[in-house]
UniProtKB/TrEMBL annotation:
Organism field: Streptomyces endophyticus
Listed name of the protein: Trehalase family glycosidase
Annotated GO MF terms: hydrolase activity, acting on glycosyl bonds
Pfam families reported in the protein's UniProt record: MGH1-like_GH
InterPro entries assigned to the protein according to its UniProt record, in alphabetical order: 6-hairpin_glycosidase_sf, 6hp_glycosidase-like_sf, Glycoside_hydrolase_63, MGH1-like_GH
Gene3D superfamilies: 1.50.10.10
Mannosylglycerate hydrolase MGH1-like glycoside hydrolase domain location: 38-430
Family the UniProt entry places it in: Belongs to the glycosyl hydrolase 63 family.
Keywords, comma-separated and alphabetical: Glycosidase, Hydrolase
Amino acid sequence: LDAPARTAAADLTLRRGAGRVLLDNWVGTSTVPSRTLYPHQWSWDSAFIAIGLRHLSARRAQRELESLLGAQWGDGRVPHIVFNSAVPNGAYFPSPDFWRSSTAGAGVGAPVSPETSGIVQPPVHALAAWLVHRADPAESRRRGFLPRVYPRLVAWHRYLLDRRDLGGGGLAAIVHPWEPGMDNSPCWDAPLARVTPAAPGSYRRADLDHGHPADRPTDLDYGRYVRLAVDYRDAGYDDRAAAHPFRLEDPCMNALLIASELALAEIARCVGGDADAHEAQAAKLTDALVTRLWDDEAGLFRARDLVDDAFVPARSVAGLVPLLAPGLPETVVDRLVSTLEGPAFHADSTALVPSYDLTGPAFDPTRYWRGPAWFNTAWLIERGLRTHGRHVHADRIRAAFLDTAGASGFAEYVDPTTGAARGARSFSWTAALALDLLN
Ligand code: 9WN
């Protein structure tokens, strides 16, 4: 099927709307994901935002990444949230007084300021830095952008490859459901069932001030998220000391690490680094990804639970994101494309990619990462399809993305069967990635 044609007028309206969202959500040195729900700086959001922002202002896009990397910890981790001290404590939960990074994380090099969370998110940053550089190489050189960010990005990847190789197989592990950026994915149901939830009265969910309860994770999920975060904090955020009762290898996280290692190779060529070493690392990661996470029977990558060394049963969009890796065997690419076109991930009505198997037992079209279609994963899959020359399919996803992003008011996510908006509106990465696809 060919993608439906979009008109120049529709593109112009979308471009203006997307630009407006990014201008409105800019707070001086970074962009909030949403003015209401997420009033601080988020790690992978900032990377996606920079990828769109580069088309409006390369300088701003550089600052977006620099401000995030400015909050990097001594052990190399890039925190998943960098808190804005001007925002009232109760505006988002968990807040700085929960994470206590500057004190609890001091042993592993958390900065004295700003306050941050103690966990991480997927490493889209080197890819973003390279794309930002390419948007305006002269401005990038003038500001010394690449030489400034390169050592930080290298340290960030080293953290993931060393401290987070909890399975010993060469992949980076996640230790909290907030880390893969897909908080309540059914992939985490079984591993989370082992976690005793924190007492309901011990914290207050600020997200429900803005988000509809049916669109957000449940209280039971939150109790478990809180328990895992408190225990990590109480172990000083030290990966050598923490028990990590929740530890998994996630395919999306590792696919992004591969794409970012390849971007680091490009950056290394500009700054006199060792490009070959980054390419070799990407090849090694690709092998490990296929060896450890490819499920040939299911036709997609799966998360591996390191507690029982087994695949989790749920099939999620994270298992399709490895299309981004250029070094995948062709047979794997063919299978991934078939899965993408099959009944589990192709919603005929909208051509959007759901976050979880449409035919799966946990499918819920409105609840967050349990079914809704998200724009960042669509952008990654679109890019992955192009990486492997599957342009017709990529065109279809691009068209569905652009139509739905505009019609939904740049929603955080949408019902994959109807395209109806869910979650926050004027959501930054939806606007940023729309802008990127328009360029
Ligand atoms: C927890 C900011 C973030 C995204 C995540 C998304 C959501 C936070 C939340 O919002 O997570 O980090 O409060 O639910 O799941 O991918 O980075 O947009």
